[in-house]
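Human: My hope is that you can spare some time for a protein that puzzles me. I am handing you a single protein, as its sequence and its fold in token form. Could you go through the record with me and say what the backbone is doing? Take your time, and here it is.
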Amino acid sequence: MKYLIIGQGLSGSFLAFHLLRRKRSFLIIDQGHNGSSSAVAAGMINPVALRRLIPTWRAEEFMSYNANYYQEIESLLGNSYYFDLPLDKLIGSSTEKDFWDKKLPSSALEKLMDNAPLVENKSALIKAETIGRVSSCKRLSIHKLLCDFRSYLIQENLLKDESISYSQLDANSYGDIEFEQLIFCEGSGIVNNPFFNYLPYSMNKGEVLSIKSNSLNSQHVLKKKVFVMPTGEGNYKVGATYAWSWENLKPEEKQKEVLLEGLQEITNAEYSVTNHEASLRPSTKDRRPFLGSHPEHSNYFIFNGMGSRGCLIAPLLGKELLDHIEMGSELNPEADIQRFTN
């Protein structure tokens, strides 16, 4: 077997799809999505850093690559997961409006935003006079994609539903499974990995709410301190919190209140809370992902640390990691874990 992949979250699934395209043999070991950041994440893809009104890291490259990539996944699985979903930033003050007027139009943002992104709010239920619109935003239906892809992998005998036992790993084998290359895509579980736990992670706990509102009727993401993202049929995700210390991974009432207060700053619409979820984000201290090989085990690789922008960055980064393994292509220095060993 060419590849053994540990983890079938966003990173592991996207790598596996690349391997299917390349007709490489592989097997994934994964025990399920319960509590994983990939399963809980809202799936919003925003290529603009709103506080500074600049493109996020490599935004145009990632957005350009993703359109065809997600279309091919949809063709394989026979379903739709990738949707246009403009984002409306609620402008809260004249100072903020002046900032947007000053920063735009910008050549750096011309492919990501309209020429005149400031528009008048016409909804009585939204608490803003002016809205700054990011027209290039997307939504990925992550949970549905991962579940459908898991079913496909199981049907094709490409996934073992079990947890990883590091003690069974040898240079080119895992129990009775032989492989050439091993790639760890474990999300927050990587902190327990004896090969890559030396890397500087910055795990944080995030929480989101699901709400139902028959009156809000927004077809765009609404963003202020929190976001309100439509997911269809009057359902919305409200998120997200960031906490760098926690007692457990259960949803917390105080974080729910933070999200509800943020929601009240956005809309007067009536709603009911239908779910409250929490998970750990596999973030890194320098806010760049971890790609590359182990300094001593040259056929052990990591593809992890996507943070809150995994839906945006992971498809192209997965290709770049496989190009590195198979053709010796150089990894982007900001993502290559060699930045911590040089």
